[in-house]
Amino acid sequence: QNQLVLKIGMIVRDRGASETVGKILHRVLGDERAERIMSELGIGTPQPVSQE
Asked: What is the three-state SS of 38-51?
């Protein structure tokens, strides 16, 4: 499974789609695991998005 996650990370970085993948990871894995994996991959680092 780790290989898959790493491959996803590579694709995400290439395409700049980390936000979408982040949402998918959260839905599939749950918040805690998704956060850990995303931080391991260095994607989706929490950046304040102002949508007020």
From this structure: HHHHCCCCCCCCCC
pLDDT tens-digit profile of 27-37? 888 888 888 87
Please answer whether residues 18 and 44 qualify as being in contact, where contact means their C-beta atoms are separated by less than 8 angstroms: yes
Higher pLDDT residue, 11 or 31? 31
- What whole-number distance in Å separates Cα of residue 52 and Cα of residue 50? 6
Q: What is the pTM of this model?
A: 0.39
Distance CA 42, CA 28 (A): 19
The tokens for 39 are 């931080």
Quickly list DSSP for 1-30.
Answer: -HHHHHHHHHHHHHHT-HHHHHHHHHHHH-
